[in-house]
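Q: Got a minute? One more chain.
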Amino acid sequence: DVQLQASGGGLVQAGGSLRLSCEVFGFTYDDYAIGWFRQAPGKTREGVSCISSRDDIYYASSVKGRFTIHINNAKNMVFLQVNSLQPEDSAVYYCGADATPVCGKNWHYYDYWGEGTQVTVSS
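A: Always. Here it is, folded:
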């Protein structure tokens, strides 16, 4: 079974940084897209960033220049470096995986999900 586990969230002050990790287990497909999404209370899940096996990289306009995504050589860990955090970045962050090599911007696109990790940014 494919499993994903997100970690690295926490409480930080505005302007701070975190490094979120998504560990992927049991994903044996050659093609992949791993996406980071976030969901704040009362809001829909929104796409934040994505990386694919065809080097397709996506950032939402609200995080471009502040967040950086990369994948390790073993292709089983995806990291999201989040810098210059603002209170509006507070949300539960989730990672999702799909066996197609194109980044989907809608969370419905992804077949596999893990539990999220909470990011809280204080002002």
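A: The first strand starts at residue 3 and ends at 7.
Q: Perfect, thanks.
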